[in-house]
Design brief:
A two-stranded antiparallel sheet has the order 1-2. The chain has a two-stranded antiparallel sheet with strand order 3-4. The chain is 0% helix and 40% strand. It has no helices and four strands. It is an all-beta fold and 60 residues long.
Amino acid sequence: MRIGAFAQVHKNHAGLVPIHELAERDMDDPESVLRIDDEVMVEVVGINLHRRRILLSLRS
């Protein structure tokens, strides 16, 4: 099961772009939108300090 793609947002920080936040249309494969080492603009849509997670979006 694919959950999305991880993106490095800073030297020591990475976040998750869930599969539903990768594109406007429904998709099953994150690799159809992103490839390793692609540079993209993402928006931070959520931060969970307790779980130390950053939620990102390409759609915004």
